Amino acid sequence: VQLAESGGGLVLPGGSLRLSCVASGLTCTHDMNWYRQPPGKEREFVSGLYNDGSTGYADSVKGRFAISQNNAKNTVYLQMNSLKPEDTAIYYCKIECMIGTMVAREYWGQGTQVTVSS
Q1: Which of 2, 42, 66, 85 is the 20 to 30 A CA-CA neighbour of 60?
Q2: How confident is the model at residue 26 (pLDDT cuts 50, 70, 90)?
Q3: Exposed, middle or buried by CB within 10 Å (0-12, 13-18, 19+), for 99?
């Protein structure tokens, strides 16, 4: 399985970006997640789209970010609106292959930089 992220860049505060993560070679039942790592900080959960169709968001992004996937379920998107300087981070896509509620295997993308600055 290979993951390819895109869509990062430099944006003004209040602006929007849409991140994409394309998974190739994915055949398992899976959850799709976005994480981020701000400068000098640890990686943190941002949002998840689970194989039962439910979604989850970190409190810091609720109401501003939206996660979705394509019909083939091999691409996950993160629509980011009302961006703030504190959203500046490297954003990573993570795919978890699930057996029931257990994570059998996980895959990470290479990351895409998002910078929110005036």
Answers
A1: 2
A2: confident
A3: exposed
Phi, psi of 72 (to 5 degrees): -75, -10
Rg, C-alpha atoms of the chain: 14
Task: Find where tokens 């295997």 sit.
Answer: 105
For 64, residues 6+ apart whose C-beta sits below 8 A from its C-beta are 80, 81, 82, 83
Q: Phi-psi region for residue 63, left (φ > 0), alpha (ψ -120 to 50) or beta?
A: left
69, amino acid identity: Q
Tokens of 13: 């505060």
Token couple for 14: 């209040």
3-class SS of residue 53: coil
Place of tokens 């257990």: 102
Helix (H, G, I), strand (E, B) or coil at 29: coil
Q: In DSSP terms, which residues pair with 67 in a beta bridge?
A: 78
**What is the rounded CA–CA span in Å between residue 34 and residue 9?**
16
How sure is the predictor about 104, in pLDDT bands with cuts at 50, 70 and 90?
Answer: confident
